[in-house]
User: Fold these one by one.
Assistant:
Number 1:
Amino acid sequence: MGEESGIAMASEDRNLTQKIAKILNETRTSYATHNRKLKELATIRSKLSSSPESDEEEDSSSSSSSVRRFSSVFFKTLTPLFVAAQRRTAAAERVVRFVAEFACLRCNSSDGDSDCDEFLEEFLKFLMAGSVAANRNARFRACQIISEIILRLPDEVEVADELWDDVIDCMMLRVRDKVPVIRTFAVRSLSRFVNDPENSDILDLLLEVLPLEHNPEVRKTIVLSLPPSNATTQAIIDCTLDVNESVRKAAYSVLTNKVPLQSLSIKLRTTILKRGLADRAVNVSTECLKLMKDQWLSNCCQGDPIEFLKYLDVETYESVAESALEVLLSEGLIMPTDDKSIQQYILSADGEARDESSCSASSIQLMEPEIALYWRIICRKLHISAQVKGSDAATAMGAEAAVYAAEASDANDLLERILPASVSDYVDLVKAHIEAGPNHHFASRQLLLLGTMLDFSDAMLHKTASAFVQELLHRPFEQELDEDGNSIVIGDGINLGGDKDWANAVSKLAKKVHAAPGEYEEVILVVVEELARPCRERTADFLQWMHMLSLTSLLLENGKSVHSLQGKAIEPEEILHALLLPGAKHTHLDVQRIAIKCLGLFGLLEKKPSEELVRQLRAAFCRSPPPISIMACKALVDLGMWHSPTEVDKALGEDLLSQFEDESIDCAPIDLSNDEEDMNFKMLDLLYAGLESDDWRAFTESSEHESVKATVGEGFAKLLLLGEKYPSLPASFYPSVLGKLIALYFSEESKEQLRFKQCLSVFFEHYASLSEKHKGYVSKAFVPLIRSMWPGIDGNCKSSSYVVSNQRKRAVQASRFIIQMMQTPLYKKEARGEPESQFDKSPEDSVQPLLNFTEDGLAIRIAIEMLSFKEKKTAAEKAYVAALCKILALLHLKPSEQNVIKLMKNLLSQLANSVCSEKELLKDVNPILEHLTPLDVCPSEKLTQDQANSIFETLGVSYNLEITATTTVPQTPAPCSKRPPQSRRRVSIEETSSDEEEEVASPPPSALMNRSHRASKAAALAKITASRVKMSNVDEDDEEEEGSSDVTAEDSDESDE
């Protein structure tokens, strides 16, 4: 009976397996069959649970065993989906979805629900076992099905807490799986539990792995899984800077759907908009627009743009608010209604809006900053639209021109309805806001910019506006008193009104009002001459000096040349000698700073910089406090780039030029505290001294944390980039300054100077790729830079082991950084132009300059540097040489440069001989030698002394390399010759015919080095072919062989030439 029941049970299992397999196969075709197949599979499970055996026993354990039996057969049938190494095909994805739906299926009866719950528990246990399998596909399918089940499972399903804990632990383990797709489904599985306070460890895990994740799909899934909270908001916003477009879009989607506007700080709101609206990907910017339009503007602000601007703090983040308004206007989401305009803020005496026909006095209602910005952007949009449509109407014809003209007319009509009715009303409106105090300073500036859209062609209107401009120009700096009763200027103390934006607004309005040629300069110079009177009489205080100099700075910034200032109220020479130079020597530091700025601007307008101006800037740079030194440094750099450094030096007089016969940069320390010594050096020497000085590390009080050294570094970076425009710069200037900038980039003191580091990072990214010459300068800068950075070399002070270790790490980082710059490919424009330029070059310049620009030249420099140390080395020198060996292994030498390969073998052979007693160094040298051996095409052909000296002369290095005929490569496996008898025979023949070979005129050493890559390859092939011919005829006749050898040598020489 037992055997018969077992056979019957096996037969039933086979039938059950076939039914389940048939259903699963049918679900592979389409999702439309899933509902019907779910019912069929649920019927099979219910029939198995209600079998006659279970009815007769009437025991709950029978139903449980039936579910386990069904589960066992179901799992076996499903196993091929886990084992087979298949791709994510559509058929397999349909099966996965069907299985997850079946696991989440619920029945109407209580008995059926218990069977479903039991099957679900068994299935989850089966899947957890698969999630820890060694097979990659098994883990993937298990995590995929678990994630589908968790996301589809209804809330009312009861599952044991212990089982859920096991599932969560298993998925948290899979979050760190090495397969990205497994990590993705593990994160999806955990997304449903991340909001549970009891599972805070899940959120901590996701926040931990998010910045470390390399796969964009996993990062996207994590971002979509994060809940809105104070802990996750910053992480989500950080993902708006992700390198992958889909991740950035997912971050904005989460911000739209989960994060309310009120929960974000003003800084985070503006950061989100600034990044999203400026994103290059259209999908990301569209998602950001959706966030701003649907969530923030419509839901939170009920479509009111003024209310929306209040959430952005327009006074602090004006550019972001302006960009947001422009986007909303371009999308047609906001537009002023008929009952709103600027005119409603200009009220008549009876309290009603004042129109153009009203003659009563006006009273002004002050605007809030958001309203002022809103109307400025609206009016600018309408003004530009009217101009564009008017231009289109002028160029079009017929009906098209009429349409454009109508659109331009509508825009102008709307603009006239919004703007003040008259110029006097506009002036009253601006004056009221200016007199209201600092709290309305922002609104006043917005209203000033509105004046550029008004028409001042009428004489009366022009007179009113001109008087208002005069008031603005005469308006002094705002001030306050400190505890000691001293006056303190409010603002930056440089620009008119203490704010650069305010000065620009005043300048734009003045240019609009005084649009005639020369009228703008004349008006400002009249005010300057008036304000300069007490300054000339020495009765003015520092505030009057600053006011006068700020106006002068505004004039010089907008001037075209010194010639445009001649014939006005005050002559340019008088401005320089009576105002600017005395201001630069004023006792008050703020007056000195703004005067130095004006001197720099004045020098840019001159055809050639004057001597007094240059001397004053040099003196201010050397002997003034950091804020003034920074301003003088900027002025000197600008003058040098505009007029060239040579012209700036010539301004000091002919007698001084005789002291600069040596064009190289003087790297000796310059005592800048000496009143006379600094004048004995050129401008570049002076700036370089400021770059090297250790005493000038003080920062200014500005928010940018500027320093003198950072300012000089930025100036030198500009000069290096534009060096081709200054042919008079000495050749040694480039590698010296470049090395110093790299050293500053990796120094400790530059960590806090974020702006300076950002500037240098952009500079280094492009510098080496712009030109081959730049790569040559990088190559020349390598050895002096790394030698100066390495502790214990050239008298570098020694310190603790911790400090020495950090210094070595920085030196290694700098060396690898330089190698990366050398290996960076040139931009396509330079690469396309290279063959033509090389074709036009003479034979002497076609190869030798290239060696100086490539990695081959750098390799020779490094090898010579390693040989410069004696056999007995200190610990620092050993570490230095070992580091250079590792750097040398990173270089890619060209097999076509055979002379370079042979020279490197000679140099490294000598190095190997010198370090033969030092096993660690020898281990680093031998692999490089073994790598060079197969690159040598003709090992029997030795490098001559003249060829080596020619290479050294090309690189500009001095090294006495003695090459003998018996030079061999020590401890390096030499390649075995394929024909040893013939090679020995050839050597004897060459010895016997040496007298004849001496009579043959050999080419000069330079000719051997001045052939192109293609000529080198042709020469090598010719020599190999000729040697084979000689070997085949070696047994015929010795005389004939000698003749053929001479012919071969002549052919080789000719090919070399």
Note: Residues 455-607 form one domain.
Number 2:
Amino acid sequence: MWLKPEEILLKNAFKLWVTEKDNKYFVLQRRRGYGDGGGGLTGLLVGTLDTVLDSTSKVAPYRILHHTPDSQVYWSIACGVTKEEIVQHWDWLQQNIMRTLAVFDSSEDITSFVQGKIRGLIAEEGKASLVMEDDPEKFREAHLRFEKWFELPPEEKLVTYYSCSYWKGKVPCQGWLYLSTNFLCFYSYLLGSEVKLVISWDEIWRLEKTSNVLLTESIHVLAHGEDHYFSMLMHLSETFVIMEQLADYSIKRLFDKEAFQREPALSDPLQITKRGLEAHARSEQFRTFFRLPREENLLEVYESFLWVPFSHFNTLGKICLSENYLCFASQDGSQCHIIVPMREVVNVENPDSSSRALTVCVRGKTALRFSEVRDYQRLASTIRSRCGISASPQHSASSEDVTLMVGQKGSSKAVSTEALMTVFHPQDVENLDPKMLKEKMKEQSWNIHFSEYGRGTSMFFTRKTRDLIVRGVPEALRGELWMLFSGAVNDMANHPGYYTELVEQSLGTSTLATDEIERDLHRSLPEHPAFQSDTGISALRRVLTAYAYRNPKIGYCQAMNILTSVLLLYAKEEEAFWLLVAVCERMLPDYFNRRIIGALVDQAVFEDLIRENLPQLVDHMTDLSFFSSVSLSWFLTLFISVLPIESAVNVVDCFFYDGIKAILQLGLAVLEYNMEALITCHDDAEAVTILSRFFDSVTNKDSPLPPTVQQAPVGNSDKASHFNVDISELIRGAYEKYGHIRSEEVEKSRKRNKLHVIQTLEDTTKQNVIRVVSQEVRFSSSQLDELYNLFKRQHFLSCYWTMQSPALLHHDPSLAYLEQYQLGFQQFSVLFSLLEPWAFCSTKNPLCFWVFRLIDENQDGLVNFKEYCCALDILYSGSFTNKLKFLFKLHLPPGDLSVKLTGRGKVDLQAYLKQWQNEILKKEETIKDLPRINQTQFIQFSKTLYSIFHGDPKEESLYQAVAHVTSLLLRMEEVGRRLQEPSTSTSPEGSDTSSSHTSQDVGADLSETEWSFSFEQVLASLLNEPVIVAFFERPVDIQTKLGQAKAAQLKLKTNK
């Protein structure tokens, strides 16, 4: 294949390469040890060393270099896996290039021509690469190898595959990397040595691109405490992106259902494709950059120039088209970008064929002229058709009218239509206070900006916009700009009347969320006059309750009340609702749920940034977890909870424009400002005090708010000893020093750290479960750890290939630790057949159902880890009496308990409390409490014993012992019946026997002559058989069973 020309150094390369052919301008080389005169393994090792020592070399054993006679510089331009492939490239160069090179005079021109030609060939190959990638025949062959090598269930969907090297220790294994929906697999077979690796995506702790002394660039995967490195990939970046997407997809589907349910494009695990993942990633990046609703997908991209009126020149960039939006971003992404909702487009003028240009007319007398658009006619047609679809009666109104009308359709009188700050602190126009004058100057600056760059949804976003944001937004414009920058203005426009309907529907509802909301209402900015009145409290209640009703998966979480209070101060009630939607569902994903995963991920990102930007602080405080704990409220409340309100709103301004990047920058600036004090502190408490005093000293000298509205400091009242810090200067310093942090890098860091955060939470859950269960069983901690991994894997096996499994539908991370992972009967039967010690329960044996029914204590059709381990503990470590009692109870009828295998419905907290109380009061069951076993049940009990003993070295002796016990029990029962015959009508024992028979009724009328046995009789008889006692008291090696189960778990699923 042709390679992008790269300069290489040949000083030591001739020791690793042999020249096969050469001429005046080109050299064809073969790696030593490969091909004639060398073995395959030698060729692989030499090739690997070559890739390690020479960053420009590829995995292929043949290459072609370009050079000129008067230059010592060589350029790699092609490589090949086989000699036939590289010879084809060589012949093409001889026939098409060599003659042309003779016309050039200088070596620079020759090299420039060759490089340009090779780049052209690569571009042509790139056009055809998609066809090759989707070649059905080639992919079918790869899928057959995938199924043969890894023996995964046929439902497992192969997404893509790559040739690469896997580093096992210091030795690389050349093979194939297969990426499927649920697994990362690698296979290599060299000289009789087979390497096979299967890692499920949900087991990965870390996934990142790395480079070190040995590996110039590789992909690092951490799973089960082991490091795995994959290198020498031809398309390493593409491979990494696909791996990252599959890991994220698995995390969302299996651990974080709240996020996954918002991804309809990836709802079916059997339909995931490489092309689908790439399209989803592009759409996600598109929505994030332009702050668009989740329903939007990137449909078309056009490269073009846009005439920028305020700069009077054309800027190069890309037009991005979705279902309802036309967006443009300049090439560097920061110079300018614009978002045009299709509902705002009033006309598309006829395209100009000479400059391939079209003009889009937007309401508000704005026109956007795009030029040099390759397919300009198609773009114009698409915009026209989409505008026709999106057209609404509101199009006849002016832009100013739309701003007022949108979302207010059918507004209820109960909904506040004014921002609380307008009600409780109206601006005095005649006030000539210096602060008010400065506020007016800010408003004038923004009005000038609006006149140049536009106002409303079609405004240009530029560097100047950010500069104005950093200086502070005027009080009067804050709500409007928050709506614009967050994208909430589009949400509200697309859902007119939605909020009013929600308020009416949620009015009077009583849930756990509404109870928590009522408790926190009066804790939300209690110092502010707006929330000392019923007006503010009622508006806050309506917004929070409506959101809890809209999104019950989140419901209500602490910190939402503080954030919503500030939103209500500057935005109308309905606008505050949509701002809350934008924050919770787009800008701070997964922040406001019970596990606050999003906040923990961003704290991990924050730690990484501290290491990069504040090394002096890192050297002093090696454990950065302190900053995670102290900064949690910074992220959850956007600094509102630690800064005075008049200063915090400036931070919120930056957040709505730049997203989480603004919070990270400010956090770094705060730590740097207090660097010297933090370095000298001796413990965490002192550091907390330093930061608290600092936040108390932050002021907003330009705030026009009166003292009654401004928030008093909550820390040390002795502020005279600590000078003040102006919030505008602090924010400006944060942008100057840390403005280089790019949003794209933050998103990459988020993805990288999310795996580690999720797995850390999962590991904490596991440790808590093991700690609880270890008090009930005799397994060691390491054995419980392996059992938990098997149990959790079995839970996931029911989720990998379907979205409708009971285990997945009823998985709720907010439940108690023991209840988070549970098995239905089908999953239980598979795992129990792998781990039970005597192989008496096959997956299709009804006895397996009896075991499930017995250990499912709450009869909900799901077995948790504790119930499962307690059953195994009896079978492995219980006394002879306990093991026998377990087997005896298996054959008792279920009585009037109905077992439903459909899984748990809505969580009943009262039921949990009652169950917990019953477990506390539960008494130890004695053998006298067990009912008698009847004739049919005893026969089945005997059959179970026979199946347990089957295959044992002493099988014959055990069978004879069971037969002897059965005969003895029958004779005892017969003698007992004869003794009772004369006094059957008056004997109390007879009535007891009769009542016990009644309690054991299984639907058939038992004759009065049918015999039955008590557990004491069965136990006493079996104790007289030493061979049986020895069998049950013989220890079983659970460690071996665990190893076998781990190896067979997936295969058993395959065979089912």
Note: The first strand starts at residue 2 and ends at 8.
Number 3:
Amino acid sequence: MGKGGQDRGKGDAGVEPSPAAVTYPAWARDVRECLEEFKVSADRGLTSEDVLRQREIYGWNELEKHSGPSIWQLVLEQFNDTLVRILLVAAVVSFILAWYDGDEGGEMGITAFVEPLVIFLILIVNAVVGVWQESNAEKALEALKEIQSEHATVKRDGELVPNLPAKELVPGDIVELRAGDKVPADMRILHLISSTVRVEQGSLTGETDAINKTHHKADSEDTEIQGKECMVFAGTTVVNGSCVCMVTQTGMNTEIGKVHSQIHEASQDDEDTPLKKKLNEFGEALTAIIGVICALVWLINLKYFLTWDYVDGWPRNFKFSFEKCTYYFEIAVALAVAAIPEGLPAVITTCLALGTRKMAQKNALVRKLPSVETLGCTTVICSDKTGTLTTNQMSVAWLVASGRWMDEVRKFKVEGTTYDPHDGMIHDWPTGKMDPNPQMIAKIAAVCNDASVAQSGHQYLANGMSTEAALKVLVEKMGLPKALNSSTEVFRCCQYWSSVAQRVATLEFDRSRKSMGVIVKTESGNNMLLVKGAVENLLERSTHIQLLDGSVVRLDETSRSLILKELYGMSSSALRCLAFAYKIYLSEFATYDGENHPAHRLLLDPSNYSSIESDLIFVGLVGLRDPPREEVHKAIEDCRAAGIRVMVITGDNKDTAEAICREIGVFGLEENISSKSITGKEFLARCDKKEYLRQSGGLLFSRAEPKHKQEIVRLLKEDGEVVAMTGDGVNDAPALKLADIGIAMGIAGTEVAKEASDMVLADDNFSTIVAAVGEGRSIYNNMKAFIRYMISSNIGEVASIFFTAALGIPEGLIPVQLLWVNLVTDGPPATALGFNPPDRDVMKKPPRRSDDSLINAWILFRYLVIGLYVGIATVGIFVIWYTHGSFLGIDLSGDGHTLVTYSQLSDWGQCATWEGFKASPFTAGSRVFSFDTNPCDYFQTGKMKATTLSLSVLVAIEMFNSLNALSEDGSLLSMPPWVNPWLLLAMSVSFGLHFMILYVPFLAQVFGIVPLSLNEWLLVLAVAFPVILIDEVLKFVGRCMTASRLRRLSQKQKNE
């Protein structure tokens, strides 16, 4: 580790901390050894000289500032894309040609510059969006810094410094912590000032409840964070109590600093999404294809701009026409523009944005657009347990009360999975008057309790320990004693018991006695001790037991065994058990009424609590759990059907996690899971980690730390899996960043986790992930549909230009027209294909491999055939207009244009040498084209009508072709166009845009086209419609091939 808080890139001078100092296991050493190691006195703290010396070694107590890439670097990165580079080259060449050529008269016309300017505009917008996304990438690191404490109370030079800036702390500093403080560094607890200290460190470890801390050392050096009970960690919060600590790690050496480093490292390893990889591969292939076709076009037309004579068998007298060379170079540029699906990035972005809206309606908030597509090929979901698979709201599952006799107990099943007191009921709960025994259980559960539950809208939120909140909910479900239920308050039962038993003192919980007690003043004016805690511990300290009617009898072995049997039964189901007991005769505390009472001194020493809580009367016990969400079991089944493996990675203990995994279906109820459930530490110790992860079915990793989660994600990705990882704490952020899809919790998640994620669950629900995966698959299928549609259209445009060049006829389609078709006309139908309804079996198929090709050999052949037809149709109608007065019974001679032979058309460059050639004037809309001065202009300016017909055929074919793209193999008879009404609307919009450029004079001039007559439109539709029939035949062949392949596969399986 470098100096905490210093940017490594700046080369600040300083001494690296020694490894021994950095890794000193203070948690496994007693207080005296720790003080000696850091050469400090707990009473005086460090001297000013010591502080300066330590800072020279360890630097400031702050997280590193990683200098991100500059704006210019981010801009340049946006052009690190094959398609973008091709577009850039095409734009530059187009601009140079437009500047060089100008108009016929030497003036620069607007038409010539439209194409390069539009391409430049596309590239600028793409770069701006990319830079904006990249600049948000490191937000997680900024959110992490906000967790750090700003001030600390420190002892230096024998004096207490109350508000020292936390960044000035160094290892060895003596710090005082109080309730509400944010811990400023990793520290070893020297001694407790209060009887107990609880710290909320769930964001770092994943633990549900605040953890009780102690000054006693841990048993082993090699222990996880959860086991370091004598340590407090930077960024966590003291919930209650106060203590004195010694700083052991600062800055980047703290646990939160390690998370910071891991997030930064993970962000450096960002990989392209599967779709981006495919598009890059497609772009590279496209580059090669364009290069070959451009070279071929030039070679075919070499004879038009480079001629020579043969003298004595050798070529001589070379003649080069720069004008003709430039013309065919423009054709090559047009071909490049035709081959590139310029509208594809915009349509993909639109489709993904629409996908995010759909997912948001299902409570999945997508932060990064490409994540929508990546979700579709997820093969493994690594899920946290607490709050995702479970409700993260502890609830009582069973209540065990005393029976009428000593050898019997009454056991009640308690429904409900939330803090809502109306959620569920107690089965077989007696109605009418409540017996004394359940009354005492309700009183202890309500009063010996520091939690509160409040209603917020339709939700109930707990404040305090979740187990205590669950007990308050239980009290409400138990109800009030008879004739006392007139109040309308939600938690009226708890309020009632608090009013009849008012607390006067608290014996705080500690780990040694494992119980909490309160001294209360009853309505009769007498004091009573109410206790709750671990069942075994309370049984040991109990001498009597209360029966159903309130009578108290001595606790014998029979009753003790019966209670322990119930305890073991509930514990084996991974329930957390708590017992209740009370004491009436309190000797010194019988008249206790506050701090001025003589017995108060006994309460100041927690070692007295066990003796005070002795000779108890046992009343009952409960079994609590964090229940699984109701919908999770079905979601796990859906994952299994969809071929997605579920791995549960939790910080919770093994038994509890296994019980939950069996209940929700990750494991079978009777399945042997000895090889599928291990701790994170055991997993790291294995030498066959990848083999272990390849097991079929679910896996469980308990007591997992951040490094375990990262290692699991890294190994899965190396094995070719597409990994979705859930998390909510600071400790989850590195793994979220590393996963293909990082999924943070919206309710329980920290800002760090949300900023590191790709998707946030608004309801923290696992089933939402499964719904999002289904939506992702549907979106990917729709994206494939419009990508195939756009690529098939581009193949048609390339074929059209290639045939034009190969046949030697005048250029039918100019670059600006192709750009209009690719960007505007094709855009609405391609976007509308994103609204195709999802397949019914979308979650019944195995996940696609991330390296599956977008277009297989058969689909490519299909679109080559379609493209070939597009080329023939667009060039064919151009030739028909010049050579035929009518076609298919449609009269084309109404405009008065001159007919020529095909040989004249293909040899139009030699027009000047033809004797007696004349071209008659013809009309197009309100325009009249006349060629009196130069008849050869008939093949240049006179080709506008033929060009318009070619462009209109191209638009019409692509509209019909969008109907073909509704389904990959399904006929339009089985999936008619109206299944996607948005597509019909989009086709109308595209035709409307085409009519606009045809019939608005200014736009018609910009695009070099003219209005068409009704007969000409009939010809356009007649030439375009066969594309549907051709693809229907190809789809039929595809269905037959698929059916044959399935039959062969089925026969092979039968034979085996």
Note: Residues 1-21, 103-108 have pLDDT under 50 and may be disordered.
